[in-house]
Amino acid sequence: MEKTSPNEDADNRDPARPARPRTFPTREAGVRDRQPMDRSVDFPVSVVLPAGGTGERTGLQTPKQFCSVLGRPLISFTIQAFERVSWIQSIVVVVAKEYMDLMTDIIQRFQHKKVQVVPGGKTRHRSICNGVLALGEATREEGQMLAADRAKVVIIHDAVRPFVEEDFLYKIAMSAKEQGAAGAVRPLVSTVISTTSEGYLDHSLERAKYRASEMPQGFTYDVIHQAYQRCTESDFEFGTECLHLALQYCGTNAKLIEGPPTLWKVTYKRDLAAAESIIKETLSQSACIITGGSAQAVTLADALQKAVGALDTELDITPDLMGDNSKYLLEEWNFIQISVSHSCLSEVEAILMDLEAVNRALLHPVVVIWVHLNGLDELSVSRKMAVPAAIRDLASAAKLRNILVYGIQLHQSADTERWERSVLRVAEITSTLIRDRSPALVGQLLQA
Ligand SMILES: Nc1ccn([C@@H]2O[C@H](COP(=O)(O)OP(=O)(O)OP(=O)(O)O)[C@@H](O)[C@H]2O)c(=O)n1
Ligand SMILES: O=C(CO)[C@H](O)[C@H](O)COP(=O)(O)O
């Protein structure tokens, strides 16, 4: 984690781990903070996301941009990061020809807006160039709107860097407009050395003098367009740096801006796991307990609320999700349904239908936990064979719609100590299920 600001993480101890994003739902809001930032950008800004690579270094069959992270392709997270920025007018995603249909499906399935898909090239520079040219073509087709609407600034960002924030994009866009080019940099993690042809040390660079060039980068349309018109086949084939093309072919010195460690690029297989764990941290840890109004359920809900205090999970209690309480469905809450004595899953089914009706699980998995409280002399539901099977079936169907259903069973006890231990276990299991969103435990009836 950063010391005081993201930029102070100079040794880059954990490049994958961001500060808890500002979009994290707070207890006060109970919902992601999607307030528009106080940024005014009075010129058109478009984005090119190169996504035409094969991801060889991951060793996976599927190119990393299409790998599933929490049930959603990585590239969808990157697109969303740009889409939610109100002053970005269009996004061009560049993909290899054979993945254009898949990309179109992803756009439809996750309801992305402002996105155009264009075919990529053999190298990253060729792909980016195609994206830039497509921006020009789009505006030509619009005829008289050309002058006003053509992107003044083009932001280029690797599709495999999903954690980019609006305030940093703003800095890049403004600097690009003023200077012609701007790019993100980070302190070097390791020293850069050059080697002799025999594999010995030739010389080493003074690390403090150098920076790692990251993404996003921003350019005025004219600079990046001209740079690609003028650069050589060798640049297209072997080049790795757009800022260099702007300098060499347009004489434009890029403004370098130190970015947060979260700009890191998914390159290896393990980076996908790191991305998933970061995304999980950004998801809501809050849950709404539905008691159905029963006194025993309310007592359990109160006890749970106290017990989770130390576990970084926030709980609200409501008798139902009707009327004003339906607000929980629209905000980023997870759900805990307490059922007392009867072992019927109809209450969970009702929550699933409500969630579906508002399309709540489109972008992120929602957790629904069924807590079944057995009375003192009641037969445990796990011994009623139909229940574990019913919850498994219900959960399997819900999982296809990105809703993760889990079950927990606990027994009422006259022994206070025993009861408190059970409540604590429910609190711990609940917190863990919400935090981990484990697909493997979906449909399981856990014992507290
Ligand atoms: N012909 C290419 C090659 C790369 N890229 C994109 O450029 C970004 C950064 O490149 P990199 O991390 O090198 O991706 P890959 O080339 O896919 O990975 P690898 O080098 O491991 O094969 C990625 O979003 C990648 O899809 C592209 O659009 N067109
Ligand atoms: O380094 C870069 C700065 O321009 C680019 O971000 C790019 O990600 C390089 O990708 P590759 O891993 O293919 O070199």
UniProtKB/TrEMBL annotation:
Compositional bias segments (type: Basic and acidic residues): 1-17
Residue span, D-ribitol-5-phosphate cytidylyltransferase C-terminal domain: 285-426
Alphabetic keyword roster: Cytoplasm, Nucleotidyltransferase, Transferase
Transferase in keyword set: yes
Gene3D superfamilies tied to this protein: Spore Coat Polysaccharide Biosynthesis Protein SpsA, Chain A
The protein's Enzyme Commission number: 2.7.7.40
One Gene Ontology term of the molecular function aspect: D-ribitol-5-phosphate cytidylyltransferase activity
Entry keyword annotation includes RNA-binding: no
A cellular component term, taken from the record's GO annotations: cytosol
Associated pathway: Protein modification; protein glycosylation
Subunit structure: Homodimer.
Family, similarity comment: Belongs to the IspD/TarI cytidylyltransferase family. IspD subfamily.
Name assigned to this protein: D-ribitol-5-phosphate cytidylyltransferase
Organism of provenance: Channa argus
